């Protein structure tokens, strides 16, 4: 019998999808789910690489989110993430200049200052809420700073960004449309300010940028800003929070990391692989394509399940399901693959590395003291709240 | 071993630079510069990882 997994539901991703992924990779690597209008779930590493490398066969123009069963309409606000070649490359290059390793490395002092400011407020030895209260503050401040938003707006910014992606979650009070509207108004104000007075922030750079001799339209500019905020916030928070949980669940790895902080970059790669903070992206077949004996019909959706590919035994061997911070090489697909691969990957790596460097320099023990409450999302099922107690190496004896 | 870059595929994201900074550099215009077409002896592992890790398959090695 064909396996039946609810790939269209947040609960699937909030639980442990690893056993289902293992089964699917072996028994049904190109797997049809009829819910939500139907889509193919792709779980093997090689297949996801194949699809990612062929944007002419597997388009992003119909959207990259999990199909929801509603009829597809062409988005009036084309986003970089839903743009196909050849325009995609030209648009992307505009913005990628600000995200090269050189530019991102130059941000390290700023990133460290933000992380220190957040972690200096964390007390040792008493229970605290870690995800919302600490981790979440870091990526949103960095992205908001990059966009040129003044510091006093950062917290408001975060509430809107959270709400605009958390629409499937009944606990989020503000609807995603309301949050999207609030952000649009806010961005318009930032743009108006730059009309008079350009600075060196990302908004100013984008206002002066041209694709094929034309400036970006107001809508294009606006969608860039939305995309950057949403893409840079929840994802990094999820990586750090779930990465911390992976360390808590593997105390021997945590000890190793505390003793040898030079392992942190490799540990971040392993967190990316093991956690896969973004569960999937979707593509749409532009013609009939045969894959592993199945026919993906023109117009059908394929959902690329990065977390499944990241545990593929054919690539990661018989330790594929093990969390191993010394893994090398680690060619995971957590940032996607192909020309839509995550633009912000150098920044995400920097943020996570600096966060764990600063965290583990202060605290050498981390324990969960309660339940982990997750975001009910199929794409970025992050951590809403998690309570932990942090033990400091120096004060540890007193609070134990 | 020589490094061959396909500019039509490269999006200038700089994963190669992060893995092998002595060989790859994305310049201020977002264009990838291959600093050494011949793979340096001491950087062979990093270059191999960079070539295999390129998300757009813009890099390959030629003997």
TrEMBL record, chain A:
Record's keyword annotation contains Metal-binding: yes
Protein name: Cytochrome P450
UniProt keywords, alphabetically: Heme, Iron, Metal-binding, Monooxygenase, Oxidoreductase
SUPFAM superfamilies to which the protein is assigned, alphabetical: Cytochrome P450
Family: Belongs to the cytochrome P450 family.
CDD domains noted in UniProt: CYP142-like
Superkingdom as given in the UniProt entry: Bacteria
Residue stretches spanning the membrane: none
InterPro entries: Cyt_P450, Cyt_P450_B, Cyt_P450_CS, Cyt_P450_sf
Pfam families hit by this protein: p450
Record bears the keyword Nucleotide-binding: no
Automatic annotation (TrEMBL), chain B:
Matches recorded under SUPFAM superfamilies: 4Fe-4S ferredoxins
Chain segments annotated as transmembrane: none
Cofactor: [3Fe-4S] cluster
Superkingdom classification of source: Bacteria
Residue span(s) of domain 4Fe-4S ferredoxin-type: 1-29
Keywords, alphabetical: 3Fe-4S, Electron transport, Iron, Iron-sulfur, Metal-binding, Transport
Gene3D superfamilies, per the entry: 3.30.70.20
Pfam families membership: Fer4_15
Function: Ferredoxins are iron-sulfur proteins that transfer electrons in a wide variety of metabolic reactions.
Protein name: Ferredoxin
Organism: Promicromonospora iranensis
């Amino acid at each position: 019998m064909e396996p039946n997994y609810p790939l269209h539901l947040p609960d699937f991703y909030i639980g442990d999808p690893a056993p289902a992924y293992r089964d699917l990779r072996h028994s049904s690597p190109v797997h049809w789910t009829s819910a939500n209008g139907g889509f193919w779930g792709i779980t093997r590493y090689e297949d996801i690489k194949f699809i990612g490398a062929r944007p002419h066969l597997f388009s992003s123009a119909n959207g990259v989110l999990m199909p929801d069963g509603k009829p597809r309409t062409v988005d009036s606000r084309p986003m970089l993430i839903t743009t196909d070649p050849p325009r995609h490359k030209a648009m992307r290059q505009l913005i990628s200049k600000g995200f090269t390793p050189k530019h991102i490395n130059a941000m390290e002092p700023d990133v460290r200052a933000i992380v220190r400011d957040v972690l200096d407020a964390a007390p040792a030895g008493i229970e605290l809420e870690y995800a919302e209260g600490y981790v979440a503050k870091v990526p949103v401040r960095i992205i908001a700073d990059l966009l040129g938003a003044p510091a006093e707006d950062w917290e408001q910014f975060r509430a809107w960004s959270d709400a605009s992606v958390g629409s499937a979650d009944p606990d989020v009070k503000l609807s995603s449309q309301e949050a999207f509207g609030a952000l649009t108004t806010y961005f318009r104000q930032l743009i108006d300010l730059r009309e008079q007075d350009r600075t060196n922030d990302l908004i100013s750079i984008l206002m002066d940028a041209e694709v094929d001799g034309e400036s970006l339209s107001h809508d294009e500019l606006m969608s860039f800003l939305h995309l950057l905020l949403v893409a840079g916030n929840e994802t990094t928070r999820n990586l750090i929070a779930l990465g911390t949980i992976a360390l808590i669940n593997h105390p021997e790895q945590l000890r190793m990391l505390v003793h040898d902080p030079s392992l942190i970059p490799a540990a971040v790669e392993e967190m990316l692989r093991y956690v896969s903070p973004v569960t999937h992206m979707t593509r749409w077949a532009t013609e009939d394509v045969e894959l592993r004996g199945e026919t993906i019909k023109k117009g059908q959706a394929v959902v690329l399940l990065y977390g499944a590919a990241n545990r593929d035994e054919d690539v990661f061997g018989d330790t594929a399901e093990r969390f191993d911070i010394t893994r090398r090489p680690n060619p995971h697909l957590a940032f996607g693959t192909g020309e839509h691969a995550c633009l912000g990957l150098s920044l995400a790596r920097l943020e996570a590395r600096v966060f764990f460097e600063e965290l583990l320099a202060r605290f050498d023990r981390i324990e969960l003291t309660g339940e982990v409450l997750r975001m009910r999302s199929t794409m970025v099922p992050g951590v809403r709240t998690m309570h932990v107690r942090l033990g400091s190496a120096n004060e540890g004896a007193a609070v134990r | 071993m020589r490094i061959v870059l396909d500019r039509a595929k490269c999006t200038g994201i700089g994963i190669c630079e992060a893995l092998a900074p002595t060989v790859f550099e994305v310049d201020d215009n977002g264009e990838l510069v291959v600093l050494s077409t011949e793979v340096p002896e001491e950087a062979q592992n990093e270059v191999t990882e960079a070539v295999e890790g390129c998300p757009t398959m813009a890099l390959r090695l030629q003997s």
